[in-house]
Design goal:
416 residues; alpha+beta; Alpha-Beta Plaits; globular
Length: 416
Amino acid sequence: MTQVPAANWAESFRYGFEDCIYPSSLDAVREIVARASAIKTLGSRHSFNAIADGTLALSLAELPIDAAIEADGTQVSVGGQCTYGELALFLQRHGLAIHNLASLPHISIAGAIATATHGSGDGNGNLATAVAGLEFVVGDGTLVHVRRGDADFEGMVVHLGALGVVTRVTLDVQPEFDIAQCVYEGLSWDALLANLDATMAAAYSVSVFTQWAEKAGTVWLKRTVSADDWPAEIHGATRATVKRHPIIGLDPENATEQLGRYGRWSDRLAHFKMGFTPSSGAEIQSEYHIARKHGAAAIEALLKIRDRFAPLVQSGEFRTVAADRLWMSPQYGNDTLSIHFTWVRDQPAVDAAAAEIEKALAPFAPLPHWGKVFTRNHIGAAYENLARFARLRDRMDPERKFSNTWLEEVVFGKGG
């Protein structure tokens, strides 16, 4: 008997699924969707809210990935269930790369683009910005193919699971490149706030990890330009001489390579190695995207109330993401500073802390990560393209097969 997924990977959210179907062919997917009255696609289960919840789950895990290089080597096409780690292994054989990775390489491509999941870097768009084409199975079982430049394409990429089942994704690729990573420790809050833009622009990808303590934390630089001139310090933070874990005090074995050693892009851009479980899973995550111009002010606002949430924080992270034109992306028209929280697994306490954070950030119009924990309802109203997205949904899913209570209340503002 096929197992019905009970919870997300962290076991912090319990699904309501009564059954889960695992088709082994695209034709089977089309038949299942056509017959179903309501269905939700379940990927690598890395969301922390009810965005993918429902009564009937569909997993594409038994479909072949069928990776293929296209467009004279400038694009790759893969099954939507493919993880970024699996994609990286395929691209290695062809000397190719994608522009960025999120913290974890274990997440599925279709799920990541659905929620505008991202890495870091002033010049790097979120992972959805690499999408050049999509294949959907819509409610009547029809296959829909779209490419960049087609009408409404920019509304289909960050699709929130509301438009259909994404069975195939085409991504832009580029020649493979090397990355080196160094960690700088002991950054003060004053130094971070005074030099936020310079700090976040110091490398191809930059993360500042914090536990909202007396010091701001550590700066992780990921550089693409080979050089031996790593500075001894950055704004008072000194270069680590041993490998570190993003959470201070944890064993760094499963963290990606550091200490300035150059190597393959896919072995450095994520924070955690592909072959390792990134953590114990006993966590909850939240994240808020703020327009870059408000970044320092937003951090200062949170510092004023950190006593209300810091005891619950396992790790925090500041990252930057470049603006895009994807309708339901938090980066639509805005470069953002993303403020991430990895919480202890105490849902009531986290919900209370998130409410305090959202209140403090309200003057800066924060947009939460679609797949993480937040408390505000009808977030969709904050998106100028919501009406266009709703009309697109009306055309692609008129029977609401792919909807659920969360989407209706949080995105479309119905019943909430």
